[in-house]
Design goal:
Largest sheet: 10 strands, antiparallel
Shape: flat
Distance between the termini: 80 Å
Number of domains: 3
Strand content: 15-25%
Radius of gyration: 40 Å
Number of helices: 8
Order of helices and strands: HEEHHHHHHEEEEEEEEEEEEH
């Protein structure tokens, strides 16, 4: 079958690429070249490969050009959106300036209104500056340096709107991070702070913008915005206060060597429940209180060696064992991060380390959950 098809292929090649003669004159001499069928087929193949390569290269170039064009369009759209926002703010400022410039009477009235609003904002926001991060988030913008009082008043009005928006955003984001920390520790946030009890914030009893407007001598619409921001900030501070009383801190600057749960006891070599978390560091590394509390025990316990136990209230206790030294006494009030003693290897211990336990309502908890919650709050 293959022998009969070979002459056919040769015949087709001769038809498509018949043998040709090429004559070239050079320096008075004529040279002849024979373009055989095979040579013509080889040249055709080279030409075809070159054409395909050129097509692919052109296609890649066009693709890159189109992609770059799309990227440029995206950048242009983003720039246009930013310019629209800036233009909108500027238009609002210009509009406010025009409205206030219409009559002298309206300018004076607006100045009084702005002063009252500013006083109310400073008073309310000042109530929350003890919360971590609030000092920066709730700080008013510096006054605009311009001799035109109309422009200055309009700019202050816009800044008041921005300050309220920042207060609401800060309270919402911080409260959400606090709720996440509670959940990481396996706790229900609503069990430690009731949001419904915070209605009215620190200003008036109940959600009453009209009463607040009378108390702060501002318009009712602005009072309603202050009330909403104050309620959000009050809930956030309530969660922060509850979190500050829980053992979310780290007991030592040390590496973890053994976690909570079932493990092989280093002495008996049998499975046993490890009710805490171990940290290893050099001898006498400071051991720190993970939450405020009262020293419930400071001395030697069987198996634990030199031990400090803190009562944090609401059913929470922490235990710090195998200490080399103890720096506190029973009944002493302890602040968050206060030094309790130094790391050691007393008691049933195989080396210098801290054995740290967290107890809630008489049951041991996984300390890693509480440490992870604390890490979330300091981010």
């Amino acid at each position: 079958m293959s022998n009969s098809s070979e002459p056919r292929r040769r015949l087709l090649a001769d038809i498509w690429f018949p043998e040709r003669h090429l004559y070239i004159r050079s320096h008075g001499e004529i040279r002849g070249y024979v373009l055989t069928t095979g040579r013509q087929m080889a040249l055709a193949a080279v030409a075809m490969i070159g054409g395909i390569w050129a097509l692919i290269a052109s296609g890649g170039f066009l693709f890159n050009l189109a992609y770059q064009s799309q990227a440029d369009d995206a950048v242009a759209r983003a720039r246009a959106a930013s310019e629209r926002v800036n233009a909108d703010l500027q238009a609002r400022l210009d509009s406010a300036v025009l409205r206030m410039s219409s009559t002298t009477g309206s300018l004076e009235e607006t100045a009084v209104m702005v002063e009252r609003r500013h006083a109310a904002l400073v008073n309310v926001m000042g109530m929350f500056r003890d919360v971590q991060g609030a000092e920066t988030a709730l700080r008013p913008a510096p006054p605009m340096e311009t001799a035109n009082p109309v422009v200055r008043i309009a700019a202050v009005k816009l800044d008041q709107e921005r300050l309220l928006a920042r207060a609401e955003g800060f309270a919402e984001s911080r409260a959400e991070r606090l709720r996440l920390a509670f959940r990481l520790a396996g706790l229900n946030p609503s069990a430690y702070f009731d949001a419904s009890a915070a209605l009215g914030g620190p200003l008036v009893q109940g959600d009453d913008p009209e009463a607040l407007a009378a108390v702060k001598d501002v318009d009712e619409a602005f009072a309603a915005r202050i009330q909403r921001a104050a309620d959000d900030l009050t809930e956030m501070r309530g969660l922060a206060d509850a979190a500050s009383a829980l053992p979310f801190g780290r007991p030592a600057e040390a590496r973890t060597t053994s976690g909570f749960g079932l493990r092989f006891d280093p002495f008996s070599r049998r499975p046993a429940l490890h009710q805490g978390q171990d940290f290893a560091a050099p001898l006498n590394t400071p051991i720190l209180a993970t939450a405020p509390g009262v020293v419930a025990f400071a001395g030697v316990r069987s198996g634990y060696g030199k031990t400090v136990e803190l009562d944090h209230g609401d059913g929470f206790k922490t235990r710090y064992a195998h200490l080399h030294s103890i720096a506190v006494q029973p009944g002493q009030r302890i602040a968050l991060g206060q030094r309790l003693g130094g790391m050691g290897t007393t008691g049933r211990s195989t080396g210098v380390h801290l054995h740290y336990e967290v107890w809630m309502n008489g049951r041991p908890q996984n300390p890693a959950r509480f440490i992870r919650a604390g890490d979330e709050l300091v981010q």
